[in-house]
Write a structure and sequence with these properties.
The chain has a five-stranded antiparallel beta sheet, with helices on one face. The chain contains one helix and nine strands; from the N terminus they run βαββββββββ. It has 130 residues and is mainly beta.
Length: 130
């Protein structure tokens, strides 16, 4: 996160469909990967992933960050070696009754990233209008 950024957030646990549509809209609009940060929580009981994405490759471009909680099955391929883009990320609800997994995120175009998770928070740059 940049030193002068102020973040606002919304937590989504049992997501209405409209919140998933909003998240998927953000993930299609912000495609340039600024950072990925994986961190353990509460004594290694699970992992959270903070993904920060930008609207363009230009310095100072608008960014959005999403924290995915209780991440599992993380698969990252072909990442780095220059600017990385996730062009077609899609989050969908996982049916099947698994305790810690409610959602799945997949890069449908190039399969650069995929994982399951329990819930998420959307963080947006203060003043960005998102």
């Amino acid at each position: 996160m940049r030193a002068n950024q102020v973040w606002q957030w919304t937590t989504y646990e049992d997501q209405p469909l409209s919140n998933l549509k909003a998240l998927n809209g953000f993930l299609r609009e912000y495609v340039y990967v600024e950072s990925l940060h994986l961190d353990s929580e509460d004594g290694l009981s699970g992992y959270n992933l903070l993904m920060t994405l930008a609207k363009s490759a230009d310095p100072g471009a608008a960014t959005i960050a999403v924290i995915f909680f209780n991440v599992g099955g993380l698969n990252v391929r072909g990442f780095g070696g220059g600017l990385t883009q996730f062009m077609d990320l899609c989050v969908s609800r996982v049916e099947g009754g698994l305790d810690r997994i409610r959602y799945e995120l997949v890069d449908e175009e190039e399969e650069k990233i995929a994982f399951n998770f329990h819930s998420f928070k959307v963080l947006s740059e203060d003043g960005s209008g998102e």
